[in-house]
Write a structure and sequence with these properties.
Layout (H helix, E strand, L loop, with lengths): L2 H9 L4 E2 L1 H11 L3 H10 L3 E2 L11 H8 L2 E5 L3 H13 L3 E5 L24 H12 L4 E5 L5 H8 L4 E4 L4 H14 L3 E7 L2 E7 L5 H5 L10 H4 L4 H19 L8 E6 L4 E6 L13
Parallel strand pairs: 1-2, 3-4, 3-6, 4-5, 6-7
Antiparallel strand pairs: 7-8, 8-9, 9-10
């Protein structure tokens, strides 16, 4: 038994290790918080921060989340909430891709924005936020615009990709890249009181089914704008989809589009394709 394992086992209370002991182990044995978390989870224990997860997510499943990588494309209204929730959930590695800096019109809804951060790159703000709320999570900031040319390299190691974009053209490119990589894509979009979520599995044409009549432009968001509450809700639904995909549980929105109307408080589902291909949602 290694010294760090011995320390962790001695200080665990039942199956939980408190945060201050995790920090102490990292400092004493020259490890990062992420490396210490791996030792905790590999020994059948649970960092105490996740104790309220375990009625829904088992210790083994928490370990699986920690071993997973998720790419979030877009760090705006949707992306900030997606990143925050993935980090608190315990997804071990998050790649965040966004070319933008914070502007004043972002302040009404983008979780990581503030007057003090105007002009700061969004991926830098995301990195600092994740370091603050869950230092065991590794966030990889990528300050570029995703395209067909760089998408393969940027997304290849991810188990799931999250679409948090505001450009239909770029998300169509993203869908094609995910198809070529055989990676599931969780798609979300928002505009005013409205939003929708769908999951594109490899081999499906989900985004083409949704945006088949689109010709040009960013979409209805440019007309309706976005208040603070719509991105928070749609992002949470996206994260729920990601969690199911990583753990191979539940029923994902494959071949279905979940439509949310917060103005009328109505939820509808559109079925738009027949699914015939099986896919291992666990990422194995």
């Amino acid at each position: 038994m290694s010294p760090v394992t011995d320390f962790i086992l001695k200080h665990a209370v039942e199956d939980l290790l408190a945060w201050h002991h995790q920090v102490e182990a990292a400092e004493r044995f020259g490890l990062s918080i992420a490396e210490t978390e791996a030792v905790i989870l590999d020994n059948g224990l649970l960092p105490a921060r996740y104790q309220r997860n375990r009625q829904t997510i088992s210790q083994g499943e928490q370990r699986k989340l920690f071993k997973s990588q998720v790419a979030v494309v877009g760090c705006g209204g949707l992306g900030c909430y997606v990143i925050e929730e993935l980090a608190r959930l315990g997804v071990g590695r998050i790649v965040v891709i966004d070319p933008d800096v914070f502007e004043e019109h972002n302040l009404n809804r983008q979780l990581f924005s503030s007057p003090a951060r105007l002009g700061q790159t969004k991926v830098e703000a995301a990195s600092r936020r994740v370091e603050e709320i869950n230092p065991a999570v590794t966030l990889v900031p990528v300050h570029v615009a995703l395209s067909r040319k760089n998408g393969i390299e940027l997304l290849a190691a991810s188990h799931v990709v999250v679409d948090s974009l505001d450009s239909i053209f770029v998300r169509m490119e993203l869908g094609d890249v995910c198809t070529s990589l055989d990676i599931p894509l969780v798609h979300g979009a928002i505009a005013g009181w409205y939003g929708h979520v769908a999951t594109q599995f490899p081999g499906d044409d989900t985004l083409k089914s949704i945006y088949g009549s689109w010709k040009s432009g960013k979409g209805v968001e440019q007309t309706l704008g976005n208040p603070s509450f719509t991105p928070a809700l749609i992002a949470s639904l996206e994260v729920a989809e990601v969690c199911k995909l990583l753990l191979g549980q539940g029923t994902p929105l494959r071949g279905r589009q979940l439509l949310i109307d917060l103005y009328s408080m109505e939820v509808n589902i559109i079925n738009f394709l027949n699914v015939t291909r099986e896919y291992d949602r666990s990422g194995n």
